[in-house]
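Bench log. Compound arrived from synthesis this morning; before running ITC I wanted a structural hypothesis for how S-adenosylmethionine sits in the protein. Inputs:
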Amino acid sequence: MTDAVLILRGLEELYPEMRFIERLRCCVETYPDLNWGDAMSRGQMTSKLWILHQLQMNDKVRLGRVAICGGWLGLLSRLILDSDRIHTTHVHSMDIDLAVTIAAGELNSEYIIGDQFTSTLTNCHDVYYGDYDTIINTSCEHFSDFGHWWEKIPDGKFVVLQSNDFTEIEDHVDYVLSAGELAAKAGLTEVKFMGSLPCYGYTRFMVMGVK
Ligand SMILES: C[S@@+](CC[C@H](N)C(=O)[O-])C[C@H]1O[C@@H](n2cnc3c(N)ncnc32)[C@H](O)[C@@H]1O
């Protein structure tokens, strides 16, 4: 058993009321080869909490039907669904990687039972977004053709976009160097929030508003 699983087991004993810890331990144990360390890193976690915080600050707490593009291991989905301040009718996490899609489903398993969550193997370039109220993409730097994906989002949708300036990572095929650059790419009709967050070695940028 890995140290990560042992630590999570201890945390499970300390905080038995927190389903999230039990789910995370189960996922790390079942899928040890997935990149949990990166997904749970300080930079990733503060970036996700930044979204929840800014949604509340901007009085945007009713998100309706949510699409999370490049949803990865489902941590943002979990944080949104666990939040008692952010309300959703459904969260749909989409990713082109089958292994992470399955793990995201297990991390959020109790919400699948209540039909509050789905995780599917989906190329976000091929989705009809008309059925969603809110579209979140915290993986913009990973999207090979941001412009093509962005064209799929209908005007009037509420969107949350994150990208970063971590240029050394090969998979970061479409990074930006400022929040202004991200905002310019999106060209929102109404900007609710735009800002930068220092993330322990790189900077994350976020824009939220109406397309
Ligand atoms: C490393 S992860 C997420 C990083 C990001 N900072 C975050 O925390 O959300 C990027 C994810 O985007 C997914 N991805 C990239 N292109 C995609 C596409 N066209 N459709 C769906 N998922 C995509 C990858 O498979 C990967 O799981």
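What the model suggests: The chain has two domains: 1-33, 39-210. The chain has a mean pLDDT of 94.
ITC booked for Thursday regardless.
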